[in-house]
Amino acid sequence: MVENIIGAGRQVLAEYGYEGASTSRIAATAGVSPGSLYQYFPHKDAIVLAVLERYGDTLVSHVTTRMTGQFAQPAPVVVRTAVAALLDGLDVEPPLLRAVVEDGPRLDDGRALRAFEQRVGELVLAYLTTRRRELRPDVPLDTAVWMLVRTVEHLTVRYLLDRPPVPRDRFTEELTHLVLAYLRPPS
């Protein structure tokens, strides 16, 4: 029942946005009565937060799966793979991405986003730690992780929401170049 309600919440949020999502609309989509819905979730925000949490878990799982076994590859391949994985994971349901970006932070004070960034940051830190000798020596790893996660996240989300006239391959290459330029020691 909980999975059914969360799935319906995701569908309604993607279709109607936060403002258009109501517990009655979610209950109808889930095929349950509002009373049944309230047995599991006390209000709309609880459902939306469950959707956000699930969305973040799925995205982290997708990126982690794509990155598994990639650390031995050259840095351009690893960065390109990470950017492509994030693009693919976020581009599954653009209307849901818009709702998550626009409405998510105000609902939970950004906790779901910070949890996602923390988990992706751990993956980035693991990679950078294996390549420490090849990186700029003047940047602490925690600083590099913070900068990289938020830069890649922000640009990827904006690319998917804004849909600029930049081909996806070109965007991936440009963002890969940006990340690598940041990480390289000065010549």
Automatic annotation (TrEMBL):
All copies of domain HTH tetR-type, residue ranges? 1-59
Q: Which organism is it from?
A: Streptomyces prasinus
Q: Does the keyword S-adenosyl-L-methionine apply?
A: no
Q: Which domain of life is it from?
A: Bacteria
Q: What Gene3D superfamilies is this protein classified in?
A: Tetracycline Repressor, domain 2 (1.10.357.10)
Q: Which residues bind DNA?
A: 22-41
Q: Which PROSITE patterns match?
A: HTH_TETR_2
InterPro entries assigned to the protein according to its UniProt record, in alphabetical order:
Homeodomain-like_sf, HTH-type_TetR-like_transc_reg, HTH_TetR, Tet_transcr_reg_TetR-rel_C_sf, TetR_C_15
Name of the protein in question: TetR/AcrR family transcriptional regulator
Q: What keywords are annotated for this sequence in UniProt?
A: DNA-binding
For this protein, the record's Pfam families field holds:
TetR_C_15, TetR_N
